[in-house]
Amino acid sequence: MAALITENFKFVSLFFKSKDVMIFNGLIALGTVASQTAYNVFAFECPCSSGRNHRYGLAAIGVPALVFFLVGIMMNRSTWDLVSECRLRKCRKLSGAAAFAILGTIIGRSVVAPLTWSVISLLQGQAYTCALSEFVDPSTVEGFPSDQGPEVMAKFPCRESVPKELQGFWDEINRRLKYESQLIGWLLVAGICLMVFLMLCMKRCSSPLGYLQEDYWSQYRSNENALFQNTAAIHARLLAAENVKSFFGFVAGTEEDKAQLAEHQKASPICSTNWNRVTGVYLYREKHGLPLYSRLNKWSTYSLENNEEAMEKEMDMLS
């Protein structure tokens, strides 16, 4: 039973690693839907006042979307790879096509949550109804008194605030505004789907790799990143332990720490030049027909050859 559980866990882990971007974007979208729904249920309160409705309604749609977008930009590793590239190498090897590809990746992943929030807001219709209610033209509603102004129309998102003589028009006005909101939401969904389809087509057509090799590259990047992070954490802990031991004469670590110290013995500091060589933007490259899947892969290849001059030249290349 234990072996079966272990094998199933490994299978699930491999699946998630191979589909990391899709799964991650899906989780972000689901989290955004839950957040938007909870906000509408527990926090959304239209002021039902002329001059305030449109500001509150548009802010309810736009401000969270902007916050999600900025958070997505900050949490995207490619953002800081691009910043490092410009800081370390002044972007001198970053061509227009490479910059467009990197920015497209950053923005593409960062807009998932903002677009989800905006679409769900429009499909539910509460924020749009609040924002646009005061701009409804009374003359377009059959039988509606023509002497009513924006102050009265702004009260329609709050049914209890509508004058009794106008209560009969609440369903029609609310239905009209929700129709407009949902129509815009579905058009936005259609536009997003079309754009994603065209971008995927462009990516597949312009990629130098076949589908299987590109899938392998994705898995390689995921595994390299996981192994690098885990090894870096252990290396930093071992180096810290050595420094603490040199100061105090002993290290009060856990059994795991002692086992790692006994296994690895020593952790040498890594020079800044090598850190800089494996940091920054990277696009696919080959050497004598053999793929170089990352900056670390490239650094390792040239290190094995002990070709410092070629390394200095090639480590600046992006494509």
UniProtKB/TrEMBL annotation:
**What's the protein name?**
Calcium homeostasis modulator protein 2
Subcellular location, in the record's words? Membrane
Q: Name one GO cellular component term.
A: plasma membrane
What membrane topology was assigned to this protein in its record? Answer: Multi-pass membrane protein
- Extract one GO molecular function annotation from the record: monoatomic cation channel activity
- Report keywords, A-Z: Ion channel, Ion transport, Membrane, Transmembrane, Transmembrane helix, Transport
- Its domain of life? Eukaryota
> Per the UniProt entry, what are the Gene Ontology biological process annotations, in alphabetical order?
ATP export
Q: Provide the species name.
A: Perca flavescens (American yellow perch)
Q: Which residues form a coiled coil?
A: none
Cross-referenced Pfam families, in alphabetical order? Answer: Ca_hom_mod
Q: Which family does it belong to?
A: Belongs to the CALHM family.
Membrane-spanning parts = 21-44, 56-75, 96-117, 183-202
